[in-house]
Amino acid sequence: MKIDLRPELRALSPVTLQEQLRSRGWQEQEATPFVVVYRRGTDELDVPLRADFADYARRVEELLEVLAELEGVRPTELLESLVQPEGDTLALRVESPVTETGTIPLDDSLRIRHGMKVMVLAAAHSALSPQPWFARLTQKDPMALLAGVREGQSQRGSFTMRCIVPVSPPVGQLGLANVQSDREPYGRTVMRLLLGALESVQQVRSRGDRDDLLRLCDQGVSGNLLAALATMSPPGGSGGVEVSVSWARNRPAPKGSSRVHFPSQAFDGLMEAALAMRDRVKAKGFEVTGYVTRLEQAAPAAVRGARKVGAKNQHLQSGDVIIAPTEGDAQELGNVSVRLSHQDYQEAIEAHRTGARVHVVGTLEKTGRRWTLSDPTGFERCADASDV
Question: Are 274 and 49 in contact (CB under 8 A)?
Fold first, then answer.
């Protein structure tokens, strides 16, 4: 059975076809009112310019078949990329006996989609300032980028999920195909960094190594990215996952490979590496909102040191509290220990007595097995137990 694609082919404008060719390095050679010739190396392609001609769909189909063969993709994939909104398309293909029918269990679909979302957010944060771990993936620019990302139609071939990251067209930059630039769109910068980070992870795991993952922060590999990738392992424990990027047709495509393949065994140890990166980091400006579950006076050593400077009743001036977070990223930490001043400690005592929630901001770090919030500021009881 042959599927009639003439409506989709006829909907492709000559402008869209030429954008695709220009972004892939094709150069215009000559033009008539009916056709324009593009050349790349020794290859030539004719682009029809009159969409109202009766044979327009047939000629576009022939053009796409040749171009798809040159780019190493299926003609239907190329057609789908041309009819979708402009942007870099991140695709994740799941290879597993479970997905041979082109379907995937709903729970696995939700798990992998969430992993893609966090992976893009992590790369977007690393593009601004590389860190081994981001306590909160909530910075303004990454969140704005995520708001513009659209999910594309899924593809067959095991099972493929796609999301389209918006990329603005260049103006006077067509020669900057593989050059980082302050004028490069943020979305393109994020996609380039994400692909490079995944390649670095794949190379480390292909050697059977895990420790080197902890040293890839400058290449955009954060613990958040590793944790997200760990959740995207193929269902059933066999097969693999391929991540690829189809570059936007409105901007020159970067050179080099655009596909990274992870066999199922490559996912082993990724979560452990992510947790190790998290445990090493200090996060400034970290917010904790929750309930005071335990009250402790200052450690005796601190008290003795205070008495040496002659401060009367110094042991009453501070105290440690344990807070059980109830929202945000802090929920994943379990309990957080905070050293409070005398005044804030009295507030904590009252909050513990009444069951009110508290809010505090400080620097989050791991001390032994305990999470601590140092240099706390703005400690306060929430007005009501249900308020943030």
Answer: no
